[in-house]
Amino acid sequence: MAKPVLTVGVAGGTGSGKSTLARRIAQAFAPGCLLICHDDYYISHDELPYEERARLNYDHPSALDTALLIRHLDALRAGRPVEVPVYDFSRHLRAAQCRRVEPADLVLVEGMLILESEPLRSRLDLKLFVDTDDDIRFIRRLERDVNSRGRDMDSVIAQYLATVKPMHERFVYPSRRWADLIVPEGGYNEAALSIIIGSIRQRLAQIPSPVHGEE
C-alpha cells in the first residue's frame, strides 16, 4: 500500500506572490516535497500560428487541462510517478519533453485557478489563497513577462486589460471563498509562512504509516 501524502494548494491572482510562497514551502520540506504548477497544464494549440495563440484567453479555466492534473494527483497519491508537461510561455506551446516526477510525502499544487475547480480542490488537504493589491500584482506581472517570458510591454498591458483582469474578477478572486487560509502578500509574509510551515509539519506527523505487507 502506498504511503498517504498531504496535498496543499496555493492559489491567488497573477503576481500575487503565490509562486514565491509555494517555493518557500517546498524548500522547507525538501527533499520530501513535490511542487506542481497548474501553468504547465495549459492546453497546447499546435495547430494555430503564433499570432493566433498569442490572442487566446489563457486566464479562463478552459485554457488548462485540469483533468490531466487531477489524474496526475490521483496517481501520485496512489504511489505512482507521472510525466508532467512543461510549458514554453515564450511560444505559447508545450515543450516536446515532459518532466518525470516521483511521489512525495508532501505535494504542493500552485496556480491561479486551482480553487475554481471543485474536483481539483476536493483533492487538496489544505487550501491557501494569496491576496495582494491589484497594482502590485500588475507591476510584478509586467516585470516577469518582459524579463523572463520574452514579451514586450505593450502586449503584456493589452493582455492584462483584455483577459487577465476580467478573468481574475470573474474566476480567481471569487475562488478565495474555498480557501482554508487567506495569506496577504504570499511568500513575502514571514509570519504567515512560519504558521503555514508549522501547520504542515503537524499534519504530516499525523499521517499514519502504511501497515507492512498491505496491498
Helix-strand pattern: EHEHHEEEHEHHEH
Strand order of the largest sheet: 2-5-1-6-7
Largest sheet: 5 strands, parallel
| Chain-averaged pLDDT | 91
What are the low-pLDDT stretches, counting only 5+ consecutive residues below 50?
Answer: 211-215
Shape: globular
Number of strands: 7
DSSP helical segment count: 7
Query: In terms of quaternary structure, what is this?
Result: single chain
- How much strand content do the residues show? 15-25%
- Estimate percent helicity: 25-40%
Radius of gyration: 18 Å
Structural class: alpha/beta
Span from first to last CA? Answer: 5 Å
How would you characterize this protein structure?
Helix content is 40%, strand content 20%. The protein has helices at 18-29, 50-54, 66-77, 118-121, 134-148, 153-172, 190-206; strands spanning 6-12, 33-37, 82-88, 93-101, 106-110, 126-131, 181-184. A hairpin with a 4-residue loop joins strand 3 and strand 4 (93-101). Helix 5 (134-148) packs across helix 6.
Briefly say what this structure is.
With 215 residues, this protein is an alpha/beta fold. Helix content is 40%, strand content 20%.
What key attributes describe this structure?
215 residues; alpha/beta; 5-stranded parallel beta sheet; two-stranded antiparallel sheet; 7 helices; globular; disordered C terminus
